[in-house]
Fold these 3 entries.
Entry 1:
Amino acid sequence: MPRVTVVQPPRQLGQGSQPNESRKGLRNAPISAEAAKVLTRGLRAHPDNVSIDYNGVDIQTQPLGVQLQDALSDAGWNVSSGIMLGISTKPRSGILIRGNNHGLTSSQERAVRAFGTAGIPFNLRRDREPKIYTSGLAHTPFGMGADDVEIVVTFPQQ
């Protein structure tokens, strides 16, 4: 059974935010502009690869996914995104960071630390199987490798 850690940061930087210029049509995103800036600053020093997927069954999860994509992209991370269907165990917070089951990589640890510093509640689930690299190429779906960060956005579990 995968280990799940619920992380509730000690302080909340506020709810709601002003959309950035490229996303004006998406209103009422769930994290503040300040929290997004703190997240970006926390991840800027060591950019990596991240996949940010949102729950395709409920389109209302897309604004948070887009907001996180913007913050990580602004930090210089290579961001891919997609839609997930049929998420069986929704994270209590609405944001799930998936870590490798045998321990977090440095990229995954940086993401966990940055989300905590930004005051963005998330759940950490260590259930990800590290992907095998062969000849310098990752044999993984959509280019996701063992060291990459995977984030799933849903509505919080009720």
Entry 2:
Amino acid sequence: MNICVFLSAADLDERYTVPAREFARLLGKAGHTLVWGGSDAGLMKVVADGVQEAGGRLVGVSVEFLSHKARPGVDEMVVAKDLAERKALLLAKADAIVIMVGGTGTLDEATEILELKKHGLHGKPVVLLNTAGFYDGLKEQFRRMDAEGFLPVPLTDLVFFAEDGVAALAYLEESAGIR
């Protein structure tokens, strides 16, 4: 399965890097392909390292203005002209999406993917991996949107909230009929 992971390229604390590395190893060991922003920095590097070390494939989608940070030695690397094209390519190459910790870029990617799913423009499973409670506030906001009628489909049809990588991968594999 090609699993797109949206996440930060920043260097982060161990409370984020250790679970990210564990999740990456699970993906690689299970034979999945990581589809990600292609960066060889920060948390993106941690995840790519983990997947590759465990035997998984790497498919990167960088963007022209960040191509100097692209990871060498991957199975496939595409360089998009801008962020909009990058998001479209990441979604096109993915069978499923995992949203890990990140900043405004990750939040932008997450909301666009959920908006497209809400409108039926893709039906791929989406997991929000809530490492160390990072997305507790966003999770609460989504629940409020759902409860107050702002979502035309149930929240559970849009996104699965996972507290750890084991639960995230189990959900994705079950959604794909692997488990």
Entry 3:
Amino acid sequence: MAGDQGAARGPLIGVLALQGDVREHLAALAAAGAVPTTVRRPDELAAVDGLVIPGGESTTMSKLAVLFGMLEPLRTRVRAGMPVYGTCAGLILLAEKILDPRSGQETVGGIDMIVRRNAFGRQNESFEAAVDVVGVGPVHGVFIRAPWVESVGAEVEVLAEHGGHVVAVRQGNALATAFHPELTGDHRLHGFFTEMVRSAG
């Protein structure tokens, strides 16, 4: 019986818990059939099958990743093919280049893209809009100080655009959205990522 339960168990997916909307991602992953856990240390990162980098403040998250000794382990695992999903600030951290980085801001990399921080405006210009995501369908996008993707490399698949700007991409096992699906109660994107993790496993 225990073996049957183990076989049915979803993949262990971490949420980088240095800063940002961690709790909402944990709930969405659980609803999507994953086993969610928080990740703050390299040993916790080593134990997970995939990782979500949540929204928050990308500069703060970058500095905390360095402070907690997480930046290089993150880069190593992402380069090695660990499935990773970044939302909003997480999208910025997965970019190879930021057009307007803050002083000392670094990225994990993993997706061959150039991004612009706060591209859709500041906090008081946050908005919600329908976004049609390839492989998922129409979703309700919550954009909060959201970035957009300025350009992508040849290996990057554009999954969604809004207002003529790229807002969702995938490259191999790396997925990123400029908006926050964890705030909507619609768990299909987390389900999409969970299936990516299963396929990679």
